């Protein structure tokens, strides 16, 4: 169908890693195309295309019937100027959901399956419910060693990789789950002071109120671009940064955003998350801290 065009409006709403679009209920495109709230739509402008979740509004102060609103995340990804001409259409369903359904049934997935899944997630083809289904499937039907490797490799390939040009690039990671366990904030400056390169990237909290990146953010900026992160590490031999803005294994951060409200962190997913981030950061040697105890993620040494 030849859609009428819409004007773009930037809606100042932070939707984190999710692209969200806003159409007025009286919009001619909304009515003609038969869009439904929370469905995926394809947005095109100036040769750029993104996928977004549709929210339908009744308040013309947010968007008028001749406008398409985009959240901050979606606006930046589309990289189009305000008031440019926009076209919208139905989005094709994510073909890789077939692999997720097979995993729910207990089947073992291949590298091609994981690459298709992570590619669709990176392209915003998955809704949060579909990502939750993937996380539950990989948690309920545990990933074997090969599947952990496949998922690690697939997530690694969705983002940038840092190359420091040095033989020894070290890092440490704690699997978390212990309140107040902020050892990285002590270890990183000590290691850097001894001359070793330690580009420490951390996630935000998954199962606790604050992760290393959240805690460090009370003292310094952690949302560093790849260029700024590189400059800081070159100057000081180390850093403490959030891996999300550095675009290192971005699919991992999208999955973490779903894991946190669900309170799930399966072992296979956790290992793939850690390794993909560390490989993307250019680390050659990694020390992993695994707290063991009755309230930790690992309850016993067996």
Can you describe this structure?
This protein is of the alpha/beta class. The protein has 3 domains: 85 residues, Beta Barrel (Barwin-like endoglucanases); 60 residues, Transferase, Pyrimidine Nucleoside Phosphorylase, Chain C (Transferase, Pyrimidine Nucleoside Phosphorylase, Chain A, domain 3), CATH 1.20.970.10; 120 residues, Pyrimidine Nucleoside Phosphorylase, Chain A, domain 2 (3-Layer(aba) Sandwich). It has a 6-stranded mixed barrel with strand order 1-5-2-4-3-6. Strand 3 and strand 4 form a beta hairpin. Helix 5 packs across helix 10. The longest helix has 14 residues. The radius of gyration is 21 Å and the shape is globular.
CATH homologous superfamily of the largest domain - what is it?
Answer: Nucleoside phosphorylase/phosphoribosyltransferase catalytic domain
Total helical segments:
11
| Percent of residues in beta strands | 15-25%
Uncertain residue ranges: none
CATH topology grouping of the largest domain: Pyrimidine Nucleoside Phosphorylase, Chain A, domain 2
